[in-house]
Design brief:
This protein is of the alpha+beta class. The protein contains eleven helices and nine strands. The protein starts with 6 loop residues before the first helix and ends in a 6-residue tail after the last helix. It binds 3-thiaglutaryl-CoA and flavin-adenine dinucleotide.
């Protein structure tokens, strides 16, 4: 028997990264391994995440809005942000979701579309994890088709009055501020809604079998009165929220590979230790074929993520390229998680190992930030010129 290689050696992934990127990746990996990994199974089982405490620790680590410039944000590259997402999701998709929604959706929406006052008021506290944000786009009847939204904002003198319901909103019940997208006479506009505004409530959604270490909520807006200054001045139409989605989808392209890597490392280690029919499970050809096929998909997904990271850092990445990464990497990650589960046999269904937790989480990741079908249609439209959503 020879000494086994690590998964990253197979594709020599580190040769594509610079020293700073490797240092950021390793710092995030150490923090999640020391601080989160020992507890994540319990948090998942109890469906209880100490999100406020964790947000402050993640803020101190510098990962909240880490790819944004100024206002207390770290101003790192997109690739470095992606590598951080990979490590966060290697422990649990719910932790990456906390960071994605904070940095790529709520903070990005304000950073990209907000007034100077909105940025000064919210971004430094959000970067530090002292204020938590959520992003309300999806509604009970409009998920894949947010353009149909019914939540509305009407003028009353200088004020805006918002009514409607948002659904499946990550961080909703723990948020200090919600970025809410609503229909106005001037098309879809975004609003910065402090969570203590009268008429705003965020009941938590219970009984999830996926993303249990993540808070998911409904947002209810009943005559929520806001000053004129609450509107995001630079977002006009559906391109406002959809532009934010590109950011979060980008993080998922890396993140999904983190979950897959954690499953595959667990399965390889388990197969080496487990004896079946008097020898190591790792020594059977069928097991090796599974491991080889999964390692190939993992490496290809990581290469694609880094390539898209470089395009994003060059400012040239296009939405259909982000869709390509999200579609492929989440679809392959969930296949890897399910295949790894078979290698662990019955042990694979328990929370003693991370695999079933990742597999269940990836069901949500497959659906949120655009379902696989939506991304197929985005790519299909780009390649054929034909719109097939309607
Ligand atoms: P369509 O006519 O295609 O576009 C309307 C306007 O938006 C522009 N646009 C984009 N802009 C930036 N980035 C993108 N990715 C964009 N896609 C479209 C477009 O150019 C147009 O601009 P303009 O100026 O001409 O008005 O709109 P459509 O109604 O046909 O919809 C297209 C479709 C289906 C692709 C879109 O609705 C879509 O992406 N649906 C999926 C919805 C979705 O992904 N929701 C996610 C909610 S947030 C979430 O899930 C958080 S999960 C937690 C976590 O991340 O961890
Ligand atoms: P639907 O749109 O009803 O889709 C149902 C099925 O129909 C899917 O398979 C879909 O692919 C398919 N379908 C839809 N349209 C077509 C078509 N044209 N052709 C073929 N098939 C089609 N949203 C937020 O705004 N903010 C959040 O923070 C957030 N966090 C989330 C957290 C979790 C854990 C989950 C599960 C969801 C979250 N979402 C959030 C919502 C998420 O973005 C939506 O669930 C997603 O966009 C899909 O919408 P839907 O669930 O209504 O499914």
């Amino acid at each position: 028997m020879t000494t086994p290689q690590s998964l990253s050696e197979l594709f020599a992934i580190d040769t594509l990264l610079d020293a700073e990127e490797i240092a950021i990746r390793d710092t995030v990996r150490k923090m999640v391994d020391d601080r989160i990994r020992p507890h994540i199974g319990e948090w998942f089982e109890a469906a209880a995440l100490p999100a406020r405490e964790l947000a402050k620790e993640l803020g101190a680590l510098g990962v909240l809005g880490m790819h944004l410039e100024g206002y207390g944000c770290a101003g790192m590259s997109a690739t470095a942000y992606g590598l951080a997402c990979q490590e966060l999701e290697a422990v649990d998709s719910g932790i990456r979701s906390l960071v994605s929604v904070q940095g790529s959706l709520a903070m990005f929406a304000i950073h990209h579309n907000g007034s100077e006052e909105q940025k000064e008021e919210w971004l430094p506290r959000m970067a530090a994890g002292e204020a938590i944000g959520c992003f309300g786009l999806t509604e009970p009847d409009f998920g894949s088709n947010p353009g149909g939204m019914r939540t509305n904002a009407k003028r009353d003198g200088d004020d805006w009055v918002l009514n409607g319901t948002k659904m499946w909103i990550t961080n909703g019940s723990i948020a200090d501020v919600a970025v809410v997208w609503a229909r106005t006479d001037d098309g879809v506009r975004g609003f910065v809604v402090p969570a203590d505004t009268p008429g705003f409530s965020a009941p938590e959604i219970k009984n999830k079998m996926s993303l249990r270490a993540s808070v998911t909520s409904e947002l209810v807006l009943e005559d929520v009165r806001l000053p004129a200054s609450a509107m995001l001045p630079k977002a006009r139409g559906l391109s406002g929220p959809l532009g934010c989605l590109n950011e979060a989808r980008f993080g998922i392209i890396f993140g999904a590979m983190g979950a897959a890597r954690d499953c595959l490392e667990t399965a390889i280690s388990y197969a080496r230790d487990r004896k079946v029919f008097d020898k190591s499970l790792a020594a059977y050809q069928i097991t090796q074929a599974k491991i080889a096929d999964m390692a190939v998909e993992l490496g290809k997904g990581q290469l694609l993520a880094i390539h898209l990271g470089r395009l994003k850092d060059a400012g040239t990445v296009r939405p259909e390229q982000v869709s390509t990464g999200k579609l492929n990497n989440v679809r392959e990650a969930i296949k890897i998680a399910r295949e790894c589960r078979t290698i662990l046999g019955a042990n694979g269904i328990t929370l003693e190992y991370p695999v079933i937790r990742h597999a269940n989480n990836l069901e949500s990741v497959l659906t949120y930030e655009g379902t696989s079908e939506v991304h197929q249609l985005v790519i299909g439209r780009a390649l054929t010129g034909e719109e097939a959503f309607r």
